Structures are given as C-alpha cells and as structure tokens.
Amino acid sequence: MSLPANAPRLGVLGGMGPLATADFLVKVIRATPAASDQEHMPIIIHNVPQIPDRSRAYLNGSDAPWPHLLDGLRTLEAAGAAAIAIPCNTAHVWHARLANETDLPVLHIGQAALDVLALECPQARKVAIFATTATLKARIYHDPLVLRGYVPLEPDDTMQASHVSAGIAAVKAGRVEAGRLLLAEAAQALARQGAQALLMGCTEIPVALDGARLDMPAVDPTNALARSCVEWWHAAKVKLSLRDAQV
Amino acid sequence: MSLPANAPRLGVLGGMGPLATADFLVKVIRATPAASDQEHMPIIIHNVPQIPDRSRAYLNGSDAPWPHLLDGLRTLEAAGAAAIAIPCNTAHVWHARLANETDLPVLHIGQAALDVLALECPQARKVAIFATTATLKARIYHDPLVLRGYVPLEPDDTMQASHVSAGIAAVKAGRVEAGRLLLAEAAQALARQGAQALLMGCTEIPVALDGARLDMPAVDPTNALARSCVEWWHAAKVKLSLRDAQV
Question: With 70 as the cut, is the pLDDT of residue A6 above it?
C-alpha cells in the first residue's frame, strides 16, 4: 500500500536521554510491518536533551522540566504530529498535564507496558518494578498495576539505591556491562521474593538487560510504547482512508 | 558546561530510510563528548519516509522527491533548526538546490567523508566508491574526489548490479548477512584493482560491513557526517556564547 504524503505523523517528545530516543526509534521501525522505506511510519522527533533532570526535579518538588516539555509539545504540533509518544518513563509524571494541553492523543508508556504484560505474562500476578526512584514515588506503574488487579513489588530502599539507581546511572555513563550485573542481581532478589514478571520501567534498563538471563519474563516498556504507536498509526491510516473514501 | 535552552539545534532531513536515520542518530550521540543527557546536541528529526525512491527518480530523470525534501526543510526551519544534515547519500543529488533555498548551512555527507578520508587514510590515492547507481551517475563522490587529487574507482556495471546494488537491496530487506557477503566480495575485487581505501557511499553499506574484514580501510560517510555535525555544533555554541558575552 502506498501512503499519501498527508499520512498521520507520530510526534516523539524525546531526548530524555538521546540514546533512549534512538532505541525507541529502532523499536518502532522493527515493530512496523514494511517492505520498503515508504511503508514506514512518518515521525517527527524532538530530541532536545536541554531539559532539567526529571527524577531530581520530581524528588525536589520542582516543576522545572514542565516549560521544556510544553515547548517540545508545541513544536511537534506545529510540525504536523497527530499523536505524541514520550520515550521516558519518569517524564510521565507530567503525562496528564501534557494530555490536558493538547487535542492530540498522548500515548502512555505504562498503559502500553501493562497491555503487553497481560498479553505475554497472563499468569503473572506479582510484578516487580525497576525504575527511577521518582517513577516509583510518583506511582506511574503502581497505580495502573493495582487497578488491573496485580500486586506490585519494588526493591527495598537499600537495593533501590545500590542496584537499580546505580545500574541506571552506569548505563547513562556508558558502562552497560556493569549496569547489567547490578540489575540482574536485583532481578534475582525480587524473583526470590515471589515476583513473576519484571517491568523494566526506565528506558536505560532494557538496554542493560538485553540478552541477560533472568528468572522471570521481563516487559520492555520502550518496546511496548513502540508497538502501541504502530497500532495507533494503523488505526489512524484506516480512519484517513475511510474519510478520503467519503469525499 | 550547562547549555542554554536556546542552544543551536541540528535539523535532520531523514527517513531515507528510517533505519539509516536511527543509525545516524546513534553515531551523533557517540561522537558527542557528553557526561550527561543535557550535554548532548539538541536535534529535530524529520523522519518522513513517504518520499519517492531517490535512486529511481534520478535515473528516470524525475524530480518527484524535490517537493518532499523542500517540505521537510521548511518543517525543520520552523522547528528552530540552525543547520541541516541529510543522512542519505543519494538525496545529495538535491543538496545544492536545498542549500539554495535556505539561509541555514546544509552539511554535505560527501565533503564530510572526504575530510575523514584525508585524516584517516593519508596515503590513499586510489579510492573505491560503493554507492547506489544514482549516486555514482550523479558523481556525488567522483567530482569532489577528483578535485582533491584522488583517483576514483568504481565497480564495473556487472559487479555494480550483482554485488553492490544487490547488497544494498539485501540490507534494505533486512538480510544483512547476505548483504555483507556480496559487498565484502566486491571490496576484495576493487582492492585487487589497486583501491587503497573504500568510501561506503550509501547508508546501508556501513550497516552491512560493520566488523567485516576488508583488504583496505573503509570510510563511513554516515559517521563522517555525524562528526561534522558535532564540529558544527561546537563552533555554533562558541559563537552563541561570544554573542551573549557581548550583550
């Protein structure tokens, strides 16, 4: 199928960090059934990392990232985006406010991850969450998990600091192998506590745990968000062709 | 150094194809000296693959890609880009016209590749070019090579069809290993004909030849373009801080 030049475009509010945005882009491309360049999703990416650290801001009660997020949203709207995706878990602290500021659908990385969890781990009830301390405290994964009847588990404060936060920081600093060891050890500990699945709720974590052997299945929210973008796009294309057929 | 929110932004005219754009983004990130998210280059990416095949258009004397390229340029200008990069060799057929349409610098992938060639292969005089047939016929690499005193070599028509074009098509179809075999065989043939360096003048080729053992050094223009973007960015930041210091 050849696509019209006015095919719906995805807007990516990215740069948090840049490597996570690149990883997301690759996952969108891989999740798209396409035999030629032209069949791939049109995407405008706002990869502007000059935005204050989301975790630190949330934990300090600061709203500093907000004007940057809003500016990115406006840029994507002006560039013709028809939906917004944010490949950063912690930035979802501001998801509801962003969704409130625009008529475009703003896809939610947590909802996308829980859809994949239900599909791929239908037996799991106890679900471990690895994420930044801000994502944990903001209950970005906890609330939707509880709503859907799951029991969320998280590392205790000591392990959160020594293994999860330290593992994420190692990946951000380019020490992927060190990050993998820390995160895999934490995953083993949670599995011993009864976790039946793992939500890798920070975009650095799937980068580290890619290919690692764990004692439970792991859901990659970046990949889940990519899949939900492809689903949005297919639905938007169908709507567009129905509308064009009526003209 | 913390960057101002008005730090100069790179505009990427991408989507040709999408995987080449993702590869370019990763290469820009890797080429940037940065210890935190905030020190990375702000980039707006127009990844819209709904543009007619550049090779086919050029070979058929068609200008069909032009309005799409111009539309992408205008979108990037409106989103605040301060320079433009195009991670697609064949699209450089339209480079001069794009540069004519804007006040922004439009970096040239061929010039960037020749700068790296001079730096990394100072002894090479005879240089093999692997590229789409359109890039060869448009002399995107030939003319600048001759201007700088090099002797360009290209595969004969048979090998161009059976190995280079077929190898590029294999990568585009996801058969990277098949592409690697074809392209590595062609590289051996050119080395036997006296080539002392290889320009991998199509964004699919470095993807295939990554890690392959060749009889000559190979220059990756995607990576060269990424490096020239980082150089542009550092110069633009210095200009900005000098201007701000004068205010």
Answer: no
pLDDT, mean over chain B: 93
Average pLDDT for chain A: 93
Domain architecture of chain B: domains with CATH: 9-108+223-246 (3.40.50.1860), 110-220 (3.40.50.1860)
8 A C-beta contact, residue A168 and residue A204: yes
> pLDDT per residue over A52-108, tens digit each?
999 999 999 999 999 999 999 999 999 999 999 999 999 999 999 999 999 999 999
Question: Per the CB < 8 Å rule, is A43 touching B9?
Answer: no
Q: Is B202 among the catalytic positions?
A: yes
- What per-residue confidence (pLDDT) applies to B6? 66
Question: pLDDT > 90: what percent of chain A?
Answer: 83
Beta strands in chain B (DSSP E): 9-14, 43-47, 81-85, 126-130, 151-153, 197-200, 218-219
Mutate to test the interface with A, among B40, B76, B230, B233 (most CBs of A within 10 A): B40
Residue with tokens 């701000």: B244
- Would you call A43 helix, strand, or coil by DSSP? strand
Chain A CA closest to residue B24: A22
Among B37, B56, B66, most A C-beta atoms within 10 A, so best to mutate, is B37
The complex scores an ipTM of: 0.91
CA distances from B183 to A73, B7, B27, B68, B126 (A): 43, 40, 22, 31, 18
Catalytic residue among A16, A86, A88, A199: A88
The answer to whether the Cα torsion of A116, B29, A174, A67 is positive or negative is negative
CB pairs under 8 A between A and B: 122
- Given an 8 Å threshold on Cβ–Cβ distance, is A5 in contact with B50? yes
Predicted local distance difference test score (pLDDT) of residue A242: 79
For chain B, list residues whose CB is within 8 angstroms of any CB belonging to chain A: 3-5, 7, 9, 15-19, 21-22, 25-26, 29, 35-53, 68, 71, 75, 78-80, 172-173
Band (pLDDT 50/70/90 cuts) for residue A152 is very high
Q: Which residues contact A210 (CB under 8 A, 6 or more apart)?
A: none
Q: What is the token pair recorded at A226? A: 């990519």
Which chain B residues are Cβ-neighbours of A26 within 8 angstroms?
19, 22
CB contact under 8 A, B53 and A40: no
Confidence band of B5 (pLDDT split at 50, 70, 90): low
- Angle in degrees, 0-180, between the axes of helices A221-246 and A109-120, rounded to the nearest 10: 100
